[in-house]
Amino acid sequence: MSFLTYFINGLSLGSIYAIIALGYTMVYGIAKMLNFAHGDFIMVGCYVIFTIVATMGLPPVAGIVVAIILCTLLGVTTEKVAYKPLRNAGSPLAVLITAIGVSYLLQNAALLIFGADTKAFTPVITWQGIVLADGALKIQGVTIITIVVSVLILVCLQTFINKTKAGQAMLAVAEDKGAASLMGIDVNKTISLTFAIGSALAAIAGALMCSAYPSLTPYTGAMPGIKAFVAAVLGGIGSIPGAMIGGLILGIIEILGKTYVSSQLSDAIVFGILVVVLLVKPTGILGKNIQEKV
Amino acid sequence: MKAGRFSKKELTTYAIVVAAYIICEILMLTGIMSSHMKGLLVPICYYAIVAVGLNLCVGILGELSLGHAGFMCVGAYSSALFSYVTESAIPTAPRFIIALVIGVVMAALAGFLIGIPVLRLKGDYLAIVTLAFGEIIKNIFNAIYLGTDSTGLHFSLKDMASMGMEPGGKIIINGAQGITGTPSDSNFTIAIVILLVSLFVVQNLVSSRDGRAIMAIRDNRIAAESNGINITKYKMLAFTISAAIAGASGVLFAHNISSLTATSQYFGYNASIMFLVYVVLGGIGNIRGSMIAAVILYMLPELLRGLSDYRMLIYSVVLIVMMLVNWSPKAREFREKHLSFLKIKKEAK
Amino acid sequence: MRVLKKVVSVMTASAMAMSLLAGCGGAKASSDTFKIGSIGPATGGGAAYGLAVKNAIQLAVDEINEAGGISGKQVEYKFEDDELNAEKSVNAYNTLKDWGMQFLIGSVTSACSIAVSDKTKQDNMFQLTPSGSAEDCTKYENVFRVCFSDPNQGLKSADYIADNNLGTKIGVIYDSSDVYSSGIYQKFAEEAAVKGLEIVSAEAFNADNKTDFSVQIQKAKDGGADLIFLPIYYTEASLILQQAARDGYAPKFFGCDGLDGLTAVENFDASLAEGVMLLTPFAADATDDLTVKFVTSYKEKFGETPNQFAADAYDAVYAIKASIEKEGITPDMKVSDICDKMKTAMTEIEVAGLTGTITWDASGEPNKEPKGVIIENGAYKSME
Predict the structure, then answer these.
(1) Residues C161 and C269 in one domain
(2) What residues in chain A have their Cβ under 8 A from chain C's Cβ atoms?
(3) Considering the entire predicted model, what is its pTM?
């Protein structure tokens, strides 16, 4: 029974990683860039919701809607100003470094605007969850909702990408930008759209993350961002179901590692398992093996 | 273009370092240099060293590593441990040299061991595994407890109590509190010497037969392999040397400030990413460039201290702008067109 | 192309070198004001602590200057950011030295403070850390501190819990990557064994994993802990309280001075903190005149409720003021002479500050009594 309790705790944490990883993998899989600032988009979304709900006293739904709009705008603008000029810079690393710059910028701007003090986030989900086995097991409402929302997003994204023209354009851009533009696809527009979706997902992920762990500082997004990156790689770069599975597995490993091995060495365990998985399956759990050609 | 054994470009790099050293020494002797600047000299050197080392991995070998701070951590801890234990037993100069050797060898060993699995992977997968190893190293050092008492050496990965030491025993590594009281053996001269040696190692490697083999692997692995180049051997060679140089930088780090802790600020992925920023801003594969970028980027936030609250904000803006100006094809075109008069001579590459 | 880049780089570099040199020329203490410098994290993960110190010193200095200064001399104050990084802390110290600092209040955090103390030792600069609590912070004779040392807090906490029969089965949740937290835990574990307290679970978290505490809470629960000891800061504690409440687990919670600030977290559901006990020298809700005045003007000026970092820093300024007056130190003295005089003065003064009435011994440790307080109806109440 206690194993089940820990397992469910792992699922709670994993669901948060999964929902962040979904947004992450959008940008990562299609624009082929590691957006280190993704975690900070989440942080921005959380502050927006915090301001609207806690400071202005409006309902959480309003907060989430405004956060989604603002994060989308932020994502698209950032892409236009900071990433697009470097798209053909000759090395994919150039844009990676700019993303780090954007990450610093957002953190420090938030520090100046909101101060360094921790804010307690008002959870947007108030449902307590369900109790099983006479109260011995409890699944939290936020976990269930996060998993449901993640699956919904997953299905929507898969449908969007596979069934719509814009989605097919994304796949084409991901495969080969040059060829895509020759086929009449507007690469700039497609990438903008990718960023818009990715950033909107960041706002949703932020709302759920801060409902599960209601404390907010300018650095709230940084570590979950990296964990989501790890989850995306674990699941297989570019694979949307992979991101979700990677996130859930990462959360479960982290909790079980802390429980049964050592809480001091939890990072070493998580990353150790990541290393082992990638050595056994070098392109992640659901990643495709691409044969190299001469 | 060759001047004796060295190319003109290599010689210029050494000349820049030596000239910078002489200028700084003169400024210090004449008392013009501020204490703030004096304090920055050694850190600037060790970040330049680690940037040079990382550029070997990223620029020359072509593999993105996000774990170099981990190698720095290995070098720092192993050498600090040695210096701390032998502080009263061995005089400063030989002690530091032995510590340096220990730090470099341990980091090289770590690089070698980690390189075996890591270098089988490619691209982003390789990057994430190096990041993972960096975090593992940091996490383990953070959990180490080591102490001695009359019954011998005690070790634990849990907490102090579980070491079972006698009261009055001496604690050497105290978990998160790390090693406190490493002798401050680093100084500017030693740092410059190590920087020059690192430059010498890397530049010589690049212009040697081995270096050409490494770059051939970077440019086209399959073509290189079909030409009979031993891929694994050369990848391991470059990666191990790169880790060893990061270790040397760690030795300087540990002997520069007296409290050594394995926290994220120094040895986490953040630090590794910062080193990568030095390399990319300075030019991937451009050894001298990464050295200069390390100097500029390390000094920038220090110079912005006058801005107080806005310091880090401005720093991030400057970083983004510098990247855009340096790397964007449009900006490059603009400079080609309108600023071509600044081109003094043709690029000697 | 490359050449141009180099030209730009060299120009930037030389511009930097010039700007560095421009500000130099060695600091002279010839001015007619006392110069107090302070170092702490103003950006990065520790910013909340550094900014509290920065603001509180500003408040104290302004008060002193308005009231006519120290021995008739005005006080100048400058704060430098160290980003919670020992190396940057040394850089910050050197910057302040160039500025002409005579007294250092800092660094705010332990590892930084230790690194800086090596330099102040060399320069014989007087250093008073408001909150550097690790044992090694005051190993040099020129360094004093305002807060309790970590071992002292661990010891007092174990004693307090045992003597007042607050619990017998103890669960501990601590930050293994933090010097403060692991320092308290170490001593607490030792003393708990002496006092017959049973530690049923001691689970760590670290700076990279400080949002999910389900395992740590569950382990304490499984071990049957009736009291959870939290030698950590309030940010993480607020999450632990919230997650424990969600799991329907309600042991007693006991913490150290790091928990102060819990009830001031913006938008925090204070009912979660109900019944939390802590040993702290400072309570923002205290009703004595000094605290009320400090808290009111701090809120007015900076819009936040001061925490114990702020209180320690505020007391630090008044300790320096008292020492200066005691020994008749004047601003035109050399830094090293000031330091020598301060070393004796600090052991002679008694400061009635926010964190209690404090005296110091020559080892740099403060003598003051921590107060046991319990949070009731969202406010602190003395447990005695």
Answers:
(1) yes
(2) 2, 5-6, 9, 12-13, 50, 54, 108, 111, 115-122, 128, 135, 138, 140, 213-215, 217-219, 223-224, 254-255, 258-259, 263-264, 266-267
(3) 0.90
Residues C141 and C155 in one domain: no
The total number of structural domains in chain C stands at 2
Residue C19 in domain: no
Q: Which residue of A has its CA nearest to B278?
A: A97
Residue B347 lies in a domain: no
Question: What's the domain count of chain B?
Answer: 1
On whether both C244 and C164 belong to a single domain, the answer is: yes
What dihedral angle (degrees, nearest 10) is formed by the CA atoms of B151, B153, B154, B156? -170
Sequence-separated (6 or more) residues with CB below 8 Å from residue C252:
C166, C167, C226, C227, C228, C275, C277
Paired residues of A131 in beta bridges: A138
Angle at A20 between CA B313 and CA A41, to 5 degrees: 25
Q: Which pair of tokens denotes residue A192?
A: 């903008």
Task: Look at C235 and A215 and tell me if their CB atoms are within 8 Å.
Answer: yes
Domain that holds residue B122: 2-342
Q: How many residues make up chain B in this entry?
A: 349
Percentages helix, strand, coil for chain B (3-state, rounded to 5) are 70, 5, 20
CB C358 within 8 A of CB C351: yes
Q: Give domain status of residue B227, yes or no.
A: yes
Residues from chain C contacting residue A117 (CB–CB below 8 Å): 48, 265-266, 304
Asked if B195 and B292 count as a contact pair (C-beta separation under 8 A), the reply is no
Which of C43, C222, C238 is closest, CB to CB, to A111?
C43
Q: Is residue C383 part of a domain?
A: no
How far apart are the CA of B270 and the nearest CA of chain A, in angstroms? 10
Largest CA distance in chain B: 75
Cβ of B317 within 8 Å of Cβ of A85? The answer is no
* List of chain A residues whose C-beta atoms are within 8 Å of the C-beta of residue B319: 97, 100-101, 104
B348 inside domain: no
Q: What per-residue confidence (pLDDT) applies to A281?
A: 86
- Asked if B142 and C111 count as a contact pair (C-beta separation under 8 A), the reply is no
**Domain of C295: which CATH number?**
3.40.50.2300
Contacts of residue B37 in chain C, CB cutoff 8 Å? 20-21, 24, 94
- CA pair distance A67, B63, nearest whole angstrom: 38
Parent domain of C144: 34-148+289-367
Higher pLDDT, B246 or B32: B246
- From the list B222, B309, B323, the residue facing A98 with the nearest CB is B323
Contact B140 A268 (CB under 8 A): yes
CATH of residue B261: 1.10.3470
Chain A residues with CB under 8 Å of B58 CB are: 93
CA C17/CA C22 separation, integer angstroms: 8
User: Do the Cβ atoms of A258 and C234 come within 8 Å?
Assistant: no
Asked if C87 and B256 come within 8 Å (Cβ–Cβ), the reply is: yes
Whether C332 and C269 share a structural domain: no
Domain layout of chain A by residue ranges: 12-220
Are C275 and C190 part of one and the same domain? yes
Query: Closest partner residue to A223 among C208, C218, C219, by Cβ?
Result: C208
Using an 8 Å Cβ cutoff, are C193 and C202 in contact?
Answer: no
- pLDDT tens digit at each of 294 positions of chain A: 688 889 998 998 999 999 999 988 888 888 888 888 999 999 999 999 999 998 899 999 999 999 999 999 999 999 999 999 988 887 888 888 899 999 999 999 999 999 888 889 888 888 888 887 777 788 888 899 999 999 999 999 999 999 999 999 999 998 888 899 999 999 999 999 999 999 999 999 999 999 999 889 999 998 898 888 889 888 988 889 999 999 999 999 999 999 998 888 888 988 998 899 888 888 888 877 665 555
Q: Judge: A85–B324 Cβ closer than 8 Å, yes or no.
A: yes
Residues C136 and C193 in one domain: no
